[in-house]
Amino acid sequence: MNLRATAAALLLVASLSVPAVLAEESDADALYARQSRLADQLDCPVCQGQSVKESNAPLARQMRALINEKIADGASDEEIFDFFETRYGVGVLRDPPKQGLALGVWLGPIIAAAAGVLAVGVVLLRRRPQPVPTADENLGELEARIDRLRHPPNGERT
Amino acid sequence: MVVGRMALGLAFGVAVLQLTMSGLAVWRRSPGFTDAARNAAIVLAAVVTIAVSTLAAGFLSQDFSIAFVADTSSRSMPLGLTISALWGGQEGSLLFWAWGLSLFSALAAWRMSKRDDALAPWGIGTLAAIALFFIGVLVFVSSPFQRLVVAPVDGRGLNPLLWDSGMQVHPPMLLTGYMSFTIPFAFAVAMLAAGRLSQDWLREMRNWMLVAWAIQGAGLLLGAWWAYRVLGWGGYWGWDPVENVALLPWLAATAYIHSALAQERRGQLRAWSVGLVLLGFALAVFGTFVVRSGILTSVHSFALSDVGPIFLTFVGIVMVIAVLAFLYRLPLLRAPLPIESLASKEAGVLLNNLLLMAVLVAVLWGTVFPIFSELVQGVRIAVGPPFYAQVTVPLLLFMLGLLGIGPLLAWRRTTGRAAWRATRWPILVTVVVSAVLLAVGMRAGLAVLGFGLAALVGVGALLEVVRSVRARPAASADEPRIALRLLGSRRRLGSNIAHFSIAVFAIGIVGSASFAQESAVRLALGESATVDGHTVTFRGLRPLSQPGLTTIYADLDVARGDQPPARLTPSRRIHAGWENQPTSDVAIRTTFPALDDLYVLLDEWEPDGSVASFRILVNPLVPLLWVGGVLYFIGVLVIAWPGAAPRRAPAAASPARQPAGP
After folding, report:
1. B360 with B252: CB under 8 angstroms?
2. How far is residue B30's CA from residue B17's CA, in Å, rounded to a whole number?
3. CA angle at A154 for the pair A150 and A158, rounded to the nearest 5°
4. Of B183, B190, B285, B384, which is most buried, counting CB atoms within 10 Å of its CB?
5. Which residues on chain B are in Cβ contact (under 8 Å) with A91?
6. Could you report the per-residue pLDDT of B345-358, keeping only the tens digit for each?
């Protein structure tokens, strides 16, 4: 179920790019759009938590230029990511690959969500519903009253 | 600065005293000691206030013999910025944290001591222990009053990125937010330690949690607003580790605010609610730790330091104690009534909590995973926005749908027919909105879904307001006015405003995430570029030199069909001593009624000023984020305004007059 949810999410995210593809764009705009999309998926190795797209560091500028070169050479997105991964290691990819150790980051939330659903299900099932005589009165209010009778507030102490 | 040092030393002593008195009050069961501990808390607030004032005076008098002042301020900084340099580094922000805590603690201790003899000493003692830790760090490890042997002529000054009005509001708000999770935590610990739940305390705890929730939310929003205006990539949220850890306690608090409702109305989810309060505090201290330790790389990394391990130890010890107490008292927290039906408000609350926890776990896991992977394999795997978007977007959409339906359901159980009658209008509106959006040619599936669900939430909240007015018959002929009837159910009104703000917020996020246009242009003098209908013409560069600071302004004329032409001046600041970090001031123009932001960043320029390159973005609907934020705050204010709570008072007074003992 969680896998399916993830797949649906991926589909949804993918459908986001549809208008970008459909829109009429000049070559320069298209090139820039692709460059900045790729740069946004790469972590600037010398910056603090910024992508290659966002950063103004000299290395990030070089990397953007490199992306442009690769695009001009006709490289695919995959090839460009591979190029940077061999150069700077897997840590350069902001979208962690779904394999190897990085798979853990994807599995973590799925396992946790499954455990949560399971725990709630167990709790709900174990307590079989029983008719409760109290109608709609506010239980908290009742308890508050009992509480006050048992432990009078400070001001009233004798 | 002798005064400051002495004040901090004294504060340490007073905190020890407060802790001791609380201990005696528990041991001897004597309210006299409780009062003494409360008085110590009030004195502590006064003493820490003196310490903060001393440091502020050091900034105002530019006393660079204080290391912290020399480190974070300089003569070229304007006054408003100099004041905010107080939280511009570790020592000062810890002092600010401790100051806020001492003020909140004094108020909380005062309220605790008025309420419950058995619980108060535990609560005041917990507050004392936490204050003791922070003041201890300030006295022994990281003193803001450290002196330099030779006072420099001028200070180093703040990082140029922080030279912004955002610096005056975002850090203090977020520090206060983190800090304020301490107070509900102390209430919870007191109940666990004493082994008794008190409705009065549960309510007081919820009110404090509301305060923390609102302040943390405001801090996050101000951070988003600042990032949007300054960082220059057109975004307001980057899933940066420091942003993430600030979001975590807010998520826990959001879950708590809802589970506390089920707790209050139906006595359900008690253990869970108390657990969330503990979790909120743990995450708040964890957040402070992450900002201060530099363990994660972040755009906030100007805040690095070495007190991290101390924080980690502290949060570890506190949490072990809290969790043990929690487990030991679990029988006490069992719900008296089971959840009866899945089509009920409490089941909705449960699902809401489940979804919030899923987001929380995913964000926490993604944030710490780089450290984890480095420990396991020596490789720091980057976890960036693509991960968070893929994991949280479906959860958030699901949550929007639930937010539209859940509040309209009844408590306990609902028949299918009644549920449909309660929810049919919002659902119908959602279907119509989505169909219209598809019909006018919107093809981004996520956007159609997002806007549709936002409509569901918005219409649902409005409908709830109408229903709550209708459901309250005018008490008498004197009270016929709608305004009064609305105020009669302030909590309900406030929560509906908050829910409506989420709808507004969601529209802003969906719009800006789905339809932003971006373009990079290189313009010669007099040349124009057009982005999404906005024509931008380059009119020239204007350098402006001040002592210690050079600013390059770019003059741009912008025009768009029906809108009057306007002038935008994005700029770059180059600060003396920080030449390698030119800082950008983005120019933003909001167009009405389209609610587009035209967002222009000066990128590079030829030295002779003939050519400059710009990044131009058109961000649709971003202003709705700020509108939603203001609405959120108004909603929480309406809920939390003092005096709203009790509907019961007079009946209780007479039996309470009886003697306390048997």
Report:
1. yes
2. 16
3. 80
4. B183
5. 370, 379-382
6. 888 888 889 999 99
Put simply, the chain B residues between 313 and 332 with a CB less than 8 A from any chain A CB are none
CB atoms within 10 A of CB B329: 18
What would the two tokens of residue A13 be?
A: 């995210």
Q: What letter would DSSP give residue B140?
A: I
Give A84: exposed, middle or buried? Use CB within 10 Å, 0-12, 13-18, 19+. buried
A138: which chain B residues are within 8 Å (Cβ-Cβ)? Answer: 265
Query: ipTM score of the complex?
Result: 0.76
* DSSP helix/strand/coil, B335: coil
Spatial separation of the C-alpha atoms in residues B637 and B552, rounded to whole Å: 42
Determine if the peptide bond prior to B593 is cis (ω within 30°): yes
Maximal C-alpha separation, chain B = 91
Written as one letter, the residue type at B127 is L
Q: What's A154's DSSP letter? A: G
Q: Which residues of B touch A101 (CB under 8 A)?
A: 373, 376-377, 379, 381
- For B227-268, the pLDDT digits (tens) are 898 887 778 898 888 889 999 999 999 999 999 888 887 777
Which among B252, B297, B300, B299 is positioned nearest to B276, based on CA atoms?
B252
Name residue B620's beta-bridge partners: B596
Q: End-to-end CA distance of chain B, in Å?
A: 56
Asked if B294 has any chain A CB less than 8 Å from its own CB, the reply is no
Q: What is the pLDDT of residue B483?
A: 56
Q: Which of A29, A43, A130, A148 to mutate to test the interface with B (most CBs of B within 10 A)?
A: A148
Asked if B389 lies within 8 A of A13 by C-beta distance, the reply is: yes
| Burial of B517: CB neighbours in 10 Å, binned 0-12, 13-18, 19+ | buried
Contacts of B41-46 with CB under 8 Å at 24 or more apart are: B41/B102, B41/B105, B41/B106, B41/B109, B41/B110, B41/B124, B41/B127, B41/B128, B42/B106, B42/B109, B42/B110, B43/B14, B44/B11, B44/B14, B44/B15, B44/B18, B44/B102, B44/B105, B44/B106, B44/B131, B45/B102, B45/B103, B45/B105, B45/B106
The tokens 């719009």 sit on which residue? B511
CA distance B107 to B387: 42
Q: Tokens 């103004």 map to which residue?
A: A56
Alpha helix (H) residue ranges in B61-119: 67-72, 79-84, 90-115
Query: How far is C-alpha B457 from the chain's CA centre?
Result: 22
Backbone angles phi, psi at B334, to 5 degrees: -65, 140
Nearest CA in chain A to B117: A154
Tell me the nearest-neighbour CA distance from B300 into chain A, angstroms: 8
* Whole-angstrom distance, CA of residue B513 vs CA of residue B331: 47
Considering only CA atoms, which of B449, B462, B342 is closest in space to residue B406?
B342
Highest mean pLDDT among A128-142, B117-131, B302-316: B117-131
At B126, is the secondary structure helix, strand, or coil? helix
Q: Which domains does chain B have, with CATH numbers?
A: 1-158 (no CATH), 517-623 (2.60.98)
Interior/surface letters B153-177, b for 16+ CB within 10 angstroms, e for the rest:
eebebbbbbbbbebbebbbbbbbbb
Tell me whether residues A113 and B350 touch, CB distance under 8 A.
Answer: no
* For testing contact with chain B, the best of A18, A51, A132, A147 (most B CBs within 10 A): A147
Q: Residue for token digits 């204050």?
A: B131
Q: How far is B609 from chain A (nearest CA, A)?
A: 20
Report yes or no: B231 at the A interface, CB cutoff 8 Å: yes
Measured CA to CA, the distance from residue B343 to residue B260 in angstroms comes to 19
**DSSP string spanning B384-428?**
-HHHHHHHHHHHHHHHHHHHHHGGGSPSS---HHHHHHHHHHHHH
Query: Measured between alpha carbons, how far is B242 from A39 in angstroms, rounded to an integer?
Result: 22
Confidence of residue A19 (pLDDT cuts 50, 70, 90): very low
Q: Do A49 and B341 touch (CB under 8 A)?
A: no
